[in-house]
Specification:
With 486 residues, the chain is α/β, with parallel strands linked by helices. The chain contains 16 helices and 21 strands. Helix 3 packs antiparallel against helix 5 and helix 4 crosses helix 5.
Length: 486
């Protein structure tokens, strides 16, 4: 066992304090919670769950720090960000392994994607900040952008540090102060980030972290009168609840919620490549992605070829121990998530979908851990549960269409609107179809994920935008100063 692994496993065994006012402090009341390794089903660490009193302390620290931090120069904020970036890079292997243990992401994926994309958000916030114009003359005055204030940030377990960084980085860059509640299911990587931020020398109270569950700490943050903005990534139900709690104090609410993204494969696309890529995209992170292309739309004449390609793609998945570098899919995060996915797979069978590959039951050779068989359904109709509900697991539904208009109609027949995907050898045709999809992002022909471009949803997939300049401006208020210059 390496020194790093020994350090991680000893340091992470008990993390009962919160980071408030620039220091690690004991919770107001003792209440411990076990963090499970989803590959072994064993508790490998314990944290404390906070209370409304802990939130009050964190908000008070953030409010006290805001007056000064909101006026810190751009140059000083850039220095803080650069120190965070440097500290993050130094601890990236530890951060990656932490996420593998707390939510089951394969170590290769944790290193190359989970950790590195989280780092990117700090790099991107620094890039935007360096050139951002906070004031500009317009008309008879000046338009000024100012930090919104104290921000309550509530983040999920599926990308436990990526979603933290996508909120914390622009908040700090714009001059806001922060109270963060990471998911209690996967909280440890955020606690490592808190150590990195502390070592970067931010003024006390600028960044605060309180662990806890949604009904207690999350709701206390959403309703708190001294929080100016709340940003949540989570389920649509959680977003509705947060919005209602925030309404009494008319605070800004930014939501990134669920998805049921359609992947339209037009008849002129390279079918084999499009299907195989689509299957692997759906199964990324064990399917625990809000924008996963979980509905694949294939022309009816290509049904049998598409199903055969999907079977071949599933055959390439390497399901196993997430600490093994060759593993491409680990377990899902919890027993509750496993049971939800299994129930929805069974509903697809019961409602008459064709089981192309996979199905319910534990994968062969995996006797422990929350493992799910990668599953593809065919002949799915738009009203089936597997076509309408966000499954959040490695389950793909293939729907058939006759015309391009019908494909677009099926794609838009959902309460969600986070992302869409279009495959065609004709870029102009793909673009025309993309323009008709009601979603906040559309990927054409396997385009990579670009975190400088805005990310967010239409309809019940949320409001507001993250990433790049758009995400930066979510944390700014707009002020008009009239009569200057005279």
């Amino acid at each position: 066992m390496t020194t790093l692994v020994r350090r991680l496993e000893s340091d992470m065994s008990t993390r009962h304090q919160f980071y408030i006012g620039g220091a690690w402090v004991d919770p107001a009341a003792p209440r411990t919670f076990g963090v499970l390794d989803p590959a072994t089903e064993e508790t490998f660490a314990t944290i404390s769950l906070g209370t409304a009193e802990d939130v009050d302390r964190a908000v008070a620290a953030a409010r006290a720090a805001f007056a000064a931090y909101s006026h810190v120069s751009v140059e000083q904020r850039l220095e803080h960000l650069e120190r965070i970036i440097s500290g993050f890079r130094a601890r990236l292997p530890e951060i990656a392994r932490t996420m593998t243990r707390e939510m089951g992401s394969p170590i290769t994926f944790s290193t190359e994607r989970q950790a590195t994309v989280a780092l990117f958000h700090f790099e991107e916030a620094a890039r935007v900040l360096a050139d951002y114009r906070f004031e500009e003359e317009r008309g008879a005055g000046i338009v000024r952008r100012e930090p919104i204030g104290v921000c309550g940030l509530i983040t999920p377990w599926n990308w436990p540090l990526n979603q933290v960084a996508s909120k914390v980085a622009p908040a700090l860059a714009t001059g806001c102060t922060v109270v963060l509640k990471p998911s209690e299911i996967a909280p440890l990587s955020a606690m490592v980030l808190a150590e990195v931020i502390h070592d970067a020398g931010l003024p006390p109270g600028v960044f605060n972290l309180v662990n806890g569950d949604g009904p207690t700490v999350g709701e206390a943050i959403a309703a708190h009168p001294d929080i100016d903005m709340v940003s949540l990534t989570g389920s649509t139900g959680a977003g509705i609840r947060v919005s209602k709690l925030a309404a009494d104090t008319v605070k800004r609410v930014a939501l990134e919620l669920g998805g049921k993204s359609a992947n339209i494969i037009l008849p002129d696309a390279d079918l084999e490549s499009a299907v195989v890529t689509g299957v692997h995209s759906c199964f990324t992170n064990a399917g625990q992605n809000c924008q996963s292309p979980t509905r694949m739309l294939v022309h009816r004449s290509q049904r049998d070829e598409a199903y055969a390609a999907a079977r071949r793609a599933v055959g390439e998945v390497r399901l196993g121990n997430p600490l093994d570098p060759s593993t491409t899919m680990g377990p899902v995060v919890s027993q509750a998530q496993l049971e939800k996915i299994t129930a929805l797979v069974q509903s697809g069978i019961d409602e008459g979908a064709t089981l192309v590959v996979g199905g319910p039951g534990r994968p062969d050779g995996l006797d422990e851990g929350f493992y799910v068989r990668p599953t593809v359904f065919g002949d799915v109709t738009p009203q089936m549960r597997i076509a309408r509900e966000e499954i959040f697991g490695p389950v793909l539904s293939i729907l058939l269409y006759e015309t391009e208009d019908e494909a677009v109609e099926i794609a838009n027949d959902t309460p969600f609107g986070l992302a869409g995907f279009v495959q065609s050898k004709d870029p102009d045709r793909a673009r025309r179809v993309a323009n008709r999809i009601r979603a906040g992002r559309v990927y054409l022909n396997g385009a990579p994920f670009d975190r400088s471009l805005p990310f967010g949803g239409y309809k019940q997939s949320g409001n507001g935008r993250e990433f790049g300049r758009f995400g930066f401006e979510e944390y700014l208020e707009v002020k008009a100063v009239l009569g200057y210059p005279q």
